[in-house]
Amino acid sequence: MGGFRRGRTRPRARGIERRKVRLSSRTKGLLAHAYANIGQLDKAESLFQQATRISTISETYYNYASFLAAHNRNEEAREWAQRILAKKPTMPGYLRRRERPWFRKASSLLKRLN
User: Fold this and answer.
1) Which residue, 5, 13, 33, 107, could crosslink 63 as a Cys pair with Cβ 3.0–4.6 Å?
2) Where would I find the H helices in 55-87?
3) What pTM did the predictor assign?
4) How far is Cα 94 from Cα 70, in angstroms, rounded to an integer?
5) Which phi and psi (to 5°) does residue 15 adopt?
6) Which residues contact 50 (CB under 8 A, 6 or more apart)?
7) pLDDT digit string (tens) for 31-68?
8) CB–CB of 56/87 below 8 Å?
9) b vs e for 34-71, b when ≥16 Cβ sit within 10 Å of the residue's Cβ?
10) Where are the domains of the chain?
């Protein structure tokens, strides 16, 4: 019966070891955002911290700031939103255009937090 026994719901895995999957910083940020949206707050917090430690992606910063704001951690949320806006003056024009939606969202979040 192909690895199944009566009463078992999973096939038996022979010789397959679990490997740690390496996730990119953007993937970690998106996964953290997904965990936050489904209510797994501890996993979300942990992944956000990992992602923001190794990345400067505005999307991740914004999602983390939104997560913090949603949990009444307004001072930290303000800090992360300001980090997004602090990058703007040093960016070349083409990057500023690409990041414009995140600058707008960060500005909007700061207005809500003040």
Assistant:
1) 33
2) 58-70, 74-87
3) 0.80
4) 32
5) 75, 10
6) 28
7) 999 999 999 999 999 999 999 999 999 999 999 999 99
8) yes
9) ebbeeeeeeebbebbebbbeebebbbbbbbbbbbbbee
10) 25-113
Structural fold of domain 25-113: 1.25.40
Helix (H) or strand (E) holding 110, with range, is: helix 93-113
Q: Cβ–Cβ contacts within 10 Å for residue 72, how many? A: 8
pLDDT digits (tens, 9 = 90+) for 56-105: 999 999 999 999 999 999 999 999 999 999 999 999 999 999 999 999 99
Q: Which of 50, 41, 43, 44 is nearest to 23 (CA)?
A: 50
